[in-house]
Amino acid sequence: MKQNKQWQSPFGFLTIATIVMAVTFSAWNALLNNFAVEAAQFNGANMGMLQSLREIPGLLAFTAVFILLVLKEQTFALISLCLLSVGVALTGLFPSVYGLYATTILMSIGFHYFETLNQSLSLQWFSKDEAPQKLGQLMSIKSMASLATFALIWLGVTFFSSAYQGLYLFFGGVGLLLTLFMMGAFPHFPEKNLQHKKLIVRKEYSLYYILLFFSGARRQIFMVFAGFLMVEKFGFDVAQITMLYMFNHLINIFAAPVIGKMIGRIGEQKALTIEYTGLVLVFVGYALVESSEFAAVLYVVDHLFFAMAIALKTYFQKIARPEDIAATAGVSFTINHIAAVSIPASFGVVWLYDSSLVFYFGAGLAACSLIMSQFIGGHLARHKAQVEHTA
After folding, report:
1. CB neighbours (10 Å) of residue 108?
2. Residue 197 phi/psi, 5° resolution?
3. Which end of the chain is least crowded, N or C, by CB within 10 Å?
4. Between the CA of residue 82 and those of 107, 252, 266, 374, what are the distances in Å?
C-alpha cells in the first residue's frame, strides 16, 4: 500500500483548496468595481443587482446535501473549484452588463458550493480542540495567497498596463491548474462520522441560525457597498483598491492565527462580543466618513473583524451532532444568504438616494448580532451539561 507523503493530508488538501479559492476570488473581487464601471458601464443599481445574482447560489447551498447522494464531499469540492476557476477566467471576455451577470453566476456556483463543503470538511477533519487554531492557520494561508494575487494585479496594472481580459484569464487559469493537480495528488480521506444525506434543521441550533442570518446580511453591505464607496465617492483606481486589499491581507497573515488561538482561550461569546461591538462603530463610521484616508482605515479594521467569524464556526462545532455537520453546512449557507439575495439590489436603489442609510442599517444588524451573541455562553453550558448527563 502506497504511503502518503506528509503534505498529502486533510490539512494539505484544505491548504491548496484555500489557495485556489483565494487566488481566483481575490482576483475577481479586486478587479470587479473598476471593471464594472469602466468596461461594463455599471451604476449603483447595476452593482446591487449583480451582487444579488451572485448570492443566489449561496441561497441554494442547501442543495449540496442532495448532490452528496451521488458525489463524495471531497470530489464535489474539487468540481466546485473548477467551476469557480472557469467562471473567473471567462469574466474579462464579456465586458457588458449581462455578460458580467452570466460569468458572475457561474463563478458564484463554484464559490458557494466550495465554501459550504470547505466548512463541512474542516469541522469534520479537525478536532474541537484544534479547530480554532487550524482555522486561523487556513485563514492566514488564504491571506497570503490573496496578498500574492493583489501584488501581481498591482504590478500588472501599474507597470505593464495589463488588460482586464488577460488578468482574469491568468488567475482563473492558475486556479484551474491547481485544482487539476489536487485531483491527481490527493487520496480520498474517509469520513470520521457517516454524514446525513438529507436536510437537517434542529431547534437546538436556532441561535446559530439567527446569528448566521444577521451575519449574512451585514457581510453583504461590506462586500457590496464598502468597496463601491471607495471607487465612487473617493475615486480609488485599481492600483489603490488593490493596495488596500494587500494591506488587509498582510495584517491577516499574522492576525488570523493569533485570533484563532485567542478564541480558543477566551471562548466564542467574548470573541463575538468584541467583533460585533467593533462592527457597530465601523458601520457608523462608513455612514459619516468624508475623508478617503479615514475610509481606508475603516475598511482595514472591518476586514480584520472577519477573522473573528471563526468563533461562529467553532460555536456550531461544539453544539452540533457529528453526523449533522455536512447537512447543516448547506442549510447554514442558505440561511446566511437569505438576506444576501435581496439586500444588494434593494440597497442599490437606496444608495442612489442616500448612501449613509445603507451603512446605518449595517450598524443596526451588528447591534442585533451583539445582543443575540450574549446567549452563547449559556447555550454552550447547557449543551455540555446535557452531553455529560447522556454519557
Report:
1. 22
2. -110, 45
3. N
4. 9, 26, 38, 40
CA gap 135, 261 in Å, rounded: 10
pLDDT in tens, the chain (391 residues): 455 677 788 999 999 999 999 999 999 988 888 888 888 878 777 877 887 788 788 778 778 888 888 888 899 999 999 999 999 999 999 888 899 999 999 999 999 999 989 988 988 888 888 888 888 899 899 989 988 998 898 888 878 777 889 999 999 999 999 999 999 999 988 776 666 666 777 888 889 889 988 888 888 788 778 887 888 888 888 778 777 877 887 888 888 888 888 998 999 999 999 999 999 999 999 999 998 889 899 988 888 887 888 889 889 888 888 888 777 777 777 887 776 667 767 777 888 888 899 899 889 999 999 999 999 988 888 877 776 666 5
User: How many residues comprise the chain?
Assistant: 391
CA distance 161 to 376: 50
Residue 293 burial (CB count, 10 A): 8
Rounded to whole angstroms, how far apart are CA atoms 18 and 254? 17
Residue 338 C-alpha cell reads as 437569505
Task: Report d(CA 52, CA 346) in Å as an integer.
Answer: 9
Taking only Cα atoms into account, the Rg of the chain, rounded to an integer number of angstroms, comes to 20
Pair 88, 29: CB distance under 8 Å:
no
Amino acid at 49: M
Which is nearest to 152 in space by CA: 31, 16, 285?
Answer: 31
Say whether 218 sits in a helix, a strand or coil.
helix
